[in-house]
Amino acid sequence: MKKILAILMAGVLTATAFAGCGGETSNASSGSSSNSGSSSNATGVNSSTVDYAYFGEEDNVKLKVWAPDAAVNLVKKQIEEFKKTYSEKTFDITVVAQGESDAATQMLNDASAAADVFSFPSDQLNKLVDAGVIAPVAKGFKDYVTSENSEDTIKAGTLKNSDGEDTLYAYPETNDNGYYMVYDNTVVTEEDAKTLEGTLAACKKAGKKFIFDAGDGFYACTFAFTAGAKIDGLEDDGITQKFVEYDEDEAVKTLQAFAKLIKEYKGTFTSLNVKNVASGFKNGTCGAGIDGSWDTKVNQDSLGDKFGAAKLPTINVDGEDKQLISMFGYKYIGVNGSSKYPNSAQILALYLSGEECQKQRTEELGWGPSNLNVQKDKIVTESAVLNAIKDQSQNSCTQVNIASTFWTPMGNLGNKLVADEWNPDDADATRKLLKDTIANVRDEG
User: Fold this and answer.
1) Number of C-beta neighbours around residue 283 at 10 A
2) Which sign, positive or negative, has the C-alpha torsion 371, 376, 380, 385?
3) pLDDT digits (tens, 9 = 90+) for 4-45
4) Tens digits of residue pLDDT in 425-441
5) Fewest CB atoms within 10 A around its CB: which of 197, 284, 389, 411?
6) Which domain, by its residues, includes 346?
7) Quick one: 91 and 203 in the same domain?
8) What is the spatial distance between Cα 282 and Cα 211, in angstroms, rounded to a whole number?
9) Within this chain, do residues 154 and 199 fall inside the same structural domain, yes or no?
């Protein structure tokens, strides 16, 4: 019956579901990938599986999937289940480790040689769309994907196409792309973790390091954001980073407070790559650090019963405790607009972004789901990490529409503040550093 239904539906559904998905039904440009916003025909879409009609005539399908290192083995297992689900089709699917932060760069280098299905963070969506290398979510799947995932991830995954129409360009995968404080609870108490001063004092007392990657703009932007220099998408030119208005004098005081605390706890406050957090816990040199959900498992394995998690702490500025403000975003699964098997790539992306696969990634990797049903599961509601990230997300700037010029100046800002030769008492130098940082982000230097 399934084969008969597929034959009857193929002519109608395939064209409807995959209009604008690249391959045979359209070209790969974002301009040709319009979404009218009208009610989608999602017949046959259920629990992230679809009727065979959606494959059209595609068979003997060969696909490449990019997944981050930590998820490669799990994705391979999920793909084996995918093959069983669609046992009437023949697949050759290769999973390749590819860091999400570099996914867009690799796609833009040569989309024809890149993965058919790939994971990436939310700030990369605009350049993938601008370059025309990502196919929108299949029209037949849009309503289902929208109903299954949190509104904020759908909103962040939606951009206007060349016709000015709102278009969902990717399948939400996580709702947790941010960072939090992880700590050894025999070194740092829950009370200590509330403030940066308390955390540093506890680490120093125990002879342990506090690790924060001050030279990486993804983390170092916390200095600027906490100071008040928060971002708000792009200017009307679609290129220049927009900043909200802020009190410059207050911002300078905040940056000075960071620099003074860093100098006071020299030898304790340590700027290192986040990979050193877990290894530091394992070898006993780290008492606390700033890390993300992607490293949850390795941090938990390193600390065991000593594992602690909290939102970012506060810092005292002229007697006032100010909450540290971070970057927060989402992760998605995208489909290459140049895929030779566009229908199959969309079906696989739908499957990998579905409820069951998201739950597996939460259980095995500690990732925070975008799926609404999984968000209600106790694996999420009782997770110290995911609750910490959720709390921190209320004190963050959203990682969408980030200018390519943003990261390096922010990293330079962090490097300056932690440098031995930096004078925390020099307000004029601090003011100049802030102004130069923003000018460089806005490419005005």
Assistant:
1) 10
2) positive
3) 333 333 333 444 444 433 333 333 233 323 333 333 333 457
4) 999 999 999 999 999 99
5) 284
6) 2-176+330-381
7) no
8) 14
9) no
Sign of CA dihedral 211, 212, 216, 219: positive
Q: Would you state the pLDDT for residue 445?
A: 56
Number of Cβ within a 10 Å radius of residue 391: 13
Residues with Cβ within 8 Å of 418's Cβ and at least 6 positions away in sequence, in order, are 214, 215, 259, 262, 269, 271
Q: Say which amino acid occupies 418.
A: V
Q: Measure the CA–CA gap between 122 and 175, rounded to whole angstroms.
A: 10
CB 439 within 8 Å of CB 264: no
Segments of the chain with pLDDT less than 70: 1-44, 46-47, 445
Per the DSSP assignment, residues forming a β-bridge with 288 are: 183, 210
C-alpha to C-alpha distance for 93 and 103, rounded to whole angstroms = 18
Query: The CATH number of the domain where 189 resides is what?
Result: 3.40.190.10
What's phi and psi for 92, nearest 5 deg?
-130, 95
Which distant-in-sequence residues (6+ apart) come within 8 Å of 332 by Cβ?
119, 120, 121, 122, 125, 153, 157, 170, 171, 172, 173, 353
Q: How far is CA 22 from CA 68, 116, 237, 326, 429, in A?
A: 25, 11, 27, 36, 52
Report the chain's terminal Cα–Cα distance, integer Å: 66
Q: Flag whether the pTM goes above 0.90.
A: no
Residues 269, 275: Cα–Cα separation, whole Å? 16
Report CA 395 to chain centroid distance, whole Å: 16
Whether 159 and 223 share a structural domain: no
Radius of gyration of the chain (CA): 23
Q: What is the number of alpha carbons within 13 Å of residue 109 lying toward its C-beta?
A: 8
Are 95 and 171 in the same domain? yes
